[in-house]
């Protein structure tokens, strides 16, 4: 009897294996169109998403070892081409007009709105980007934004002495509230609390599958968008009803109709505001958190950074804010920010999709495929960054600056290169200024840090802070 059971079990396992291999084969055949690059497509529907999410960077490296720097896969619900070649990546980012448009997930597009910058192409994109650049230009940072950032950071960082701080939460709040102050001059009011809780739901929604079921993150994200749109609409109405004087904040500039080169509709203004807060949120907060981590682990770097910031403070009275010249003098701080972004790899890459069938790198890519411009590995290239796993900000201060080279993808590249780069650097620099000149800190220890697919501390990242 036991022999029979054993035989049946063997046959079952055999049949399951046959079925699985038939499924895998079927999926390969389905995507085996001539002219496609090498690679595997995994399971029907799920593709290789599980391997990608579980193994992360090593999945990409293994596939590259097998198939080269340009291979096909099926991840996150889409047939995808992964490009890890620096030159090709640059070509893809420079050639949006040839049909290589942003390819962000549907949930992100639904929640960020149809006028958000990633959803618009061609001349509309140029116009929206122009409008954005006009409100975050170097002059605007110098005259309008930096004073707001300075004021905000002082308040945000006050009274951390002798406290146990979850630096992940604090940097998230910081990135959001600092943006809100720049956008609409709003600080700690009832509106900011309500806005913040809706915004956090919106962020979760953009990172979820677009499944519209009660209780799903997607549904909550859509609802959060509706609530945020109504808060912003009300703000627009209130401002229009009040005196004609313009507010000196981003919203004020976007609403200005007379001498403004870029005239946006209310819907465009609202999506622009959401885009600004959203784009700077995770990037600025995670870079700030990771800078705190790396500085804690590298006392020599912290010492050099403190030297730079105390030199700035020495020339000032305690209440004097950071100004443009101070910011420009923070060369080592800038290097710390770049080195943090490189080593932590806050951005793994950017997504594009093809709007028509096209030839790329000698292959024929079908319409509607996603292209993952995967830049992570460039950050660890030993030819560009000798001893790549070392946290060494000094490498950014060498004569031939890596920042101006073609392989610098930390802020993207081509027509959609990050317009908020200098603003983000200004925010993180000001945060670091007040943090390292006011405090010393120790990690509580034991908090887990995840590096992929997003850099985050799943249970928070706690530090014990005391005054310096
Ligand atoms: C350390 C901070 C930051 C990092 C690492 C970063 C990184 C990036 C990257 C990699 C892209 C390219 C996306 C793509 O090609 O699809 C991008 C685009 C963008 N970033 Fe940033 N960013 C940062 C801060 C900011 C800030 C503070 C803002 C606020 C205005 C901002 C606004 C944007 C916008 C609007 C785009 C889309 C541009 C377009 O599509 O034309 N970023 N960013």
Automatic annotation (TrEMBL):
Keywords: Heme, Iron, Membrane, Metal-binding, Monooxygenase, Oxidoreductase, Transmembrane, Transmembrane helix. One of its GO terms (molecular function) is heme binding. The keyword Metal-binding applies. GO terms for cellular component: membrane. Its cofactor is heme. It is found in: Membrane. It is a single-pass membrane protein. It holds the Pfam family p450. Gene3D superfamilies: Cytochrome P450. The keyword Membrane applies. CDD domains: CYP90-like (cd11043). Belongs to the cytochrome P450 family. This is Cytochrome P450 85A.
């Amino acid at each position: 009897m036991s022999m029979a059971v054993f035989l049946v079990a063997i046959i079952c396992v055999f049949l399951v294996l046959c079925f699985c291999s038939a499924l895998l084969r079927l999926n390969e055949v389905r995507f085996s169109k001539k002219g496609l690059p090498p690679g595997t497509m995994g399971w029907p529907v799920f593709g290789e998403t599980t391997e990608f999410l579980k193994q992360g960077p090593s999945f990409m490296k293994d596939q590259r070892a097998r198939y080269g720097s340009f291979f096909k896969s099926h991840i996150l619900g889409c047939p995808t081409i992964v490009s890890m070649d620096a030159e090709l990546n640059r070509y893809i980012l420079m050639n949006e007009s040839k049909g290589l448009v942003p390819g962000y997930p549907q949930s992100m597009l639904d929640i960020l709105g149809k006028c958000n910058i990633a959803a618009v192409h061609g001349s509309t994109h140029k116009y929206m980007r122009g409008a954005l650049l006009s409100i975050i230009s170097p002059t605007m940072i110098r005259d309008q934004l930096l004073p707001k950032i300075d004021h905000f950071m002082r308040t945000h960082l006050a009274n951390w002495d002798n406290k146990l701080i979850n630096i992940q939460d604090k940097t998230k709040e910081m990135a959001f509230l600092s943006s809100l102050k720049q956008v609409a001059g709003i600080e700690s009011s009832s509106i900011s609390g309500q806005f913040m809780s809706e915004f956090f739901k919106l962020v979760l929604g953009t990172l979820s599958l677009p499944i519209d079921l009660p209780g799903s993150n997607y549904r909550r994200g859509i609802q959060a968008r509706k609530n945020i749109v109504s808060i912003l609409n009300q703000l627009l109405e209130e401002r229009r009803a009040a005196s004609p004087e313009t507010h000196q904040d981003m919203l004020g500039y976007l609403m200005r109709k007379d001498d403004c080169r870029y005239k946006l509709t209310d819907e465009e203004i609202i999506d622009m505001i959401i885009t600004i807060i959203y784009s700077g949120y995770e990037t600025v907060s995670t870079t700030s958190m990771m800078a705190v981590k790396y500085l804690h682990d590298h006392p020599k770097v912290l010492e050099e950074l403190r030297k730079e910031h105390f030199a700035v403070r020495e020339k000032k009275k305690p209440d004097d804010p950071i100004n443009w010249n101070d910011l420009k003098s923070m060369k080592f701080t800038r290097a710390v920010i770049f080195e943090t972004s490189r080593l932590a790899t806050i951005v793994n890459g950017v997504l594009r999709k093809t709007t028509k069938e096209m030839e790329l790198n000698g292959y024929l890519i079908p319409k509607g495929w996603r292209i993952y411009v995967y830049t992570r590995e460039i950050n660890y290239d030993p030819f560009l960054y000798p001893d790549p796993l070392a946290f060494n900000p000094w490498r950014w201060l060498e004569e031939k600056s890596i920042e101006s080279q073609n392989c610098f993808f930390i802020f993207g590249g081509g027509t959609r290169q990050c317009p908020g780069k200098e603003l983000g650097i200004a925010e993180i620099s000001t945060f670091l200024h007040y943090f390292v000149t006011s405090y010393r800190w120790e990690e509580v220890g034991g908090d887990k840090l995840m590096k992929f697919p997003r850099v985050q501390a799943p249970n928070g990242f706690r530090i014990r802070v005391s005054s310096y």
